[in-house]
Amino acid sequence: MDCLETLYHDLMEEKEPDTPEYRENRKIRELLLEDIQKAMGEDMAEKVTAVYTDRENLENYRYFLSGLRMGLELLRL
Fold first, then answer.
1. Is residue 4's pLDDT more than 90?
2. Which one-letter DSSP state was computed for residue 2?
3. What mean pLDDT comes out for the span 47-55?
């Protein structure tokens, strides 16, 4: 793992925000997962969760790299 990946993973381990918006979003996600479990079963709910988690991690890493690039560009100004 290179230093950028190490930095990204260290930052991802930060404490979850404790805001009303974050709590509401987390509750909505839990309710949607319960609906998937009821409609399609536990196995499908686990697969959907895994796919969304992987996609979210890839997207977050891309945003991290974009922010880092922007910061480096600003330092060159």
1. no
2. -
3. 92
Phi and psi dihedrals of 61, rounded to 5? Answer: -65, -40
- The better pLDDT of the pair 7, 31 is held by 31
Q: In the numeric block, which tokens belong to residue 1?
A: 């793992």
Rounded-to-integer distance, Cα 23 and Cα 41, Å = 25
Q: For helices 42-76 and 3-12, give the axis angle rounded to 10 degrees.
A: 120
**Max CA-CA distance within the chain?**
55
DSSP assignment of 5-57 equals HHHHHHHHTSPPP--HHHHHHHHHHHHHHHHHHHHH-HHHHHHHHHHHHHHHH
CA distances from 60 to 3, 5, 11, 39, 47 (A): 16, 12, 11, 29, 20
Establish how many alpha carbons lie within 13 A of residue 40's alpha carbon, considering only the half-sphere containing its beta carbon.
11
Residue type, 38: K
